[in-house]
Write a structure and sequence with these properties.
Structural class: alpha/beta
Number of domains: 2
Strand content: 15-25%
Order of helices and strands: EHEHEHEHHEEHEEHEEEHEHEHEHH
Largest sheet: 7 strands, parallel
Number of helices: 12
CATH superfamily of the largest domain: NAD(P)-binding Rossmann-like Domain
Length: 390
């Protein structure tokens, strides 16, 4: 651990998935954390943070504080005295707040949250003479690169969706500001993050979880049809076997073979903490898996967990099923926004990350980890955890 001056952290995004677990990791390490954020509709930021701290089973006492801010306003919407105190005690700044929507219809809100809100955050880094700024970006900010994606600034890329585009724009704005104002900067690029690899706990259930939840929904629709005696399922070859397994002929069509780069939240936190606590860490860091599973493996896991048979993964040039049955049609509709990540050919260089965090790597994504995470998600009804109020 560093000296006392290095223990002060300003953190944005602490009510989100990555930010909440990162906040917990920082507090467990003994840091003093000041959370910046907005209130929810009917809940103050301090109450939201208090609920999260309780969910993690922590009692940080005076080492944790929360300040409600407005990133669209000068000095974060704070009066001069509070802003001055914030700057005087800033230490390091971690910007983790983000809108993760992929949908083009949400372009305005995504750009507002991920790009347009940056000036006040960057002013804070300059005004406070921050020891270091850490920006949590995304491995997919690289856009539609081919082959090995390097730990370098993004240049002239096409993007799969507005989220990737916004992260790339944000990286460039932050990089230029820090360069112009001599603020040390590290850009952290995680891939797709799931729950804790040892406990299965999570605070968000999208991406991988959404695919499994979609399959669960489809399964239950056809199970209900069979059990109610409607018989519509039979003409598509859907049936319930004697062993209770649903035979669900379903093709997932993709344009190419690839992988799904998944990392657990505990690996993300451990790597970020190692980067923060290592001197001279300015640079770009991929926090990714060097042994990601492919969609065939994930389909096998999902079938085993959900009690299904008959799901096949096929590759064709269009990546489309020309004559989908109702199950295939529903899956394609539900999972369209995530389709590009099911057969991703991007490979992420981790040279700088490995140099800072030797011996730390994402665990192989086994069925045991998959089942543990999905069991937790089902117990939470794919939403907030049921055992605590967050």
């Amino acid at each position: 651990m560093e000296g006392e001056s290095g223990r002060s952290i300003i953190l944005t995004g602490a009510t989100g998935f990555l930010g909440a677990f990162l906040m917990s990791g920082l507090l467990e390490r003994g840091y003093h954390v000041t959370v910046l954020g907005r209130p929810a509709k009917n809940m103050r930021l301090s109450d939201r943070i208090s609920g999260l701290v309780g969910w993690f089973g922590l009692d940080p006492g005076p080492r944790l504080s929360a300040i409600e801010v407005d990133f669209s306003k000068k000095h974060l919407g704070l009066d001069d005295e509070i802003y001055g105190d914030l700057c005087a005690n800033a230490g390091k700044v971690i910007h983790c707040a983000s809108d993760t929507s992929f949908a083009e219809r949400n372009r305005k809100q995504v750009m507002l949250a991920n790009v347009d809100s940056l000036p006040s955050l960057l002013d804070l880094a300059v005004d406070s003479r921050a020891e270091h700024l850490y920006y949590v970006s995304s491995a997919y900010a690289c856009g539609q690169c081919t082959g090995l994606c390097m730990e370098t600034p993004i240049k002239n890329q096409r993007f799969t969706n507005v989220y990737e585009e916004s992260k790339a724009q944000a990286e460039e704005i932050i990089r230029r500001s820090c360069q112009d104002n001599d603020v040390p900067l590290s850009i952290l690029r995680p891939s797709i993050v799931y729950g804790h690899s040892e406990t299965g706990r999570s605070l968000k259930f999208n991406a991988l979880y959404y695919a499994v939840r979609s399959m669960l929904l489809i399964r239950d629709i056809f199970l209900n049809d069979i059990r109610q005696g409607g018989g519509k399922s039979k003409k598509w070859g859907i049936s319930l076997d004697d062993d209770g397994i649903l035979n669900l002929p379903m093709k997932i069509c993709l344009p190419n073979k690839g992988s799904v780069n998944l990392i657990p939240i505990d690996y993300f936190v451990a790597t970020v903490l190692r980067i923060i606590e290592h001197p001279g860490t300015s640079g770009i860091y991929h926090i990714t898996s060097d042994n990601p599973p492919d969609i065939t493996t994930l389909a096998e896991y999902a079938q085993r967990f959900l009690g299904l048979r008959g799901i096949d993964v096929l590759w064709n040039q269009s990546g489309k099923n020309a004559n989908p049955n109702p199950a295939e049609e529903l899956f394609d509709k539900l999972f369209e926004q995530y389709r590009p990540y099911l057969s991703d050919e991007r490979i992420f260089d981790q040279s700088r990350t490995r140099s800072i965090a030797p011996g730390i790597s994402a665990p192989p994504f086994t069925y045991e980890i998959f089942a543990q995470c999905m069991t937790y998600a089902v117990a939470c009804d794919w939403g907030w955890p049921l055992d605590h109020s967050v």
